[in-house]
Amino acid sequence: MEYADERKQAVREQFGKNAEHYVQSQTHAKGDDLKLLVEWLKPQRDWVVLDIATGGGHVARTLSAEVDFVVATDLTRPMLEAAARANQRENATNIMYVEADAEKLPFLDGAFDIVTCRIAAHHFPNPDAFIREVSRVLRVGGSFLFIDNVVPETNEVADFVNTIEKMRDLSHERCLSPREWKKLFEQNQLKATREKENKKKFAFQQWVQRTSESKEQEEEVEQFILQAPDSLRAYLEVQVKDQRVITHQIDEWMVLCQKEGNDRNDK
């Protein structure tokens, strides 16, 4: 428990000081998945949505135009405040902001028609607790739309990716593989009905600077990549010029789940 609390404090500190960066981040604000999630979810006008770890509020704002009401949560108050300001500028007024832990949500069972979580779960110390909470607050028949960075089954590659992420962002916990996530879904009455993998390419310097604490930290990340075996660098499709990392890519996974069960907790 003490470890989890320490990790969550690291998340608060990291995202608190970088809140506006995440609101403005083109990776988060302009991803094709924002349009796709509406197509997949087919939201109805009278539905209520929960967006967990809302970050810059991009998913909340996208869905607010399609549903009755959105509750956007985040562990970090400055992040919520930045998201609220951005969404209000876009006239997305049917969103309520709640400071909340993704692993211990302050909502009643079956309270939501849709639950979403986008590019955040790799910061969660206890993904099993997170998925249990998703299932608990989602009504039977409701939809869970999940997007996150993932790793392959190969331990060497998975460890390599997670080490880079941890070196670059001290609040990073662990990217799981799609297989690991599916196991958690199945254990919690969430049936995956649709999925899509995507390669995300980053300009390395911009990517590493977004969360770094110092120039030394940035250089350590870059040298770790440059000194890695060719097979690992090939997985990330690392592009190098004049002994500098120019671009690299990571895997992102998008999956739609439906909560199975009886109608006892259905609205």
Task: Give an overview of the whole structure.
This protein has 267 residues and is an alpha/beta fold. Strands 1, 2, 3, 4, 5, 6, 7 and 8 form an 8-stranded mixed β-sheet that branches. It starts with a helix and ends in an 8-residue tail after the last strand. The chain has a single domain, classed as Rossmann fold, CATH 3.40.50. Helix content is 43%, strand content 26%. It contains 12 helices and 8 strands. It is globular, with a radius of gyration of 18 Å. It comes from Brevibacillus invocatus.
Approximately how much helix is present in the residues? 40-55%
In DSSP terms (H or I, runs of 4 or more residues), the helix count works out at 12
Q: Can you tell me the overall shape?
A: globular
CATH architecture: 3-Layer(aba) Sandwich
CATH class: Alpha Beta
CATH superfamily: Vaccinia Virus protein VP39
SSE string: HHHHEHEHEEHEHHEHHHEE
How many distinct domains?
Answer: 1
Q: Quaternary status of these chains?
A: single chain
Radius of gyration over all CA atoms, rounded: 18 Å
The residue-averaged pLDDT reads 90
Structural class: alpha/beta
Low-confidence stretches: none
Calculate the terminal CA-CA distance, rounded to whole Å. Answer: 34 Å
Biggest sheet descriptor? 8 strands, mixed
Strand proportion: 25-35%
- Give me the count of strands: 8
- CATH topology name: Rossmann fold
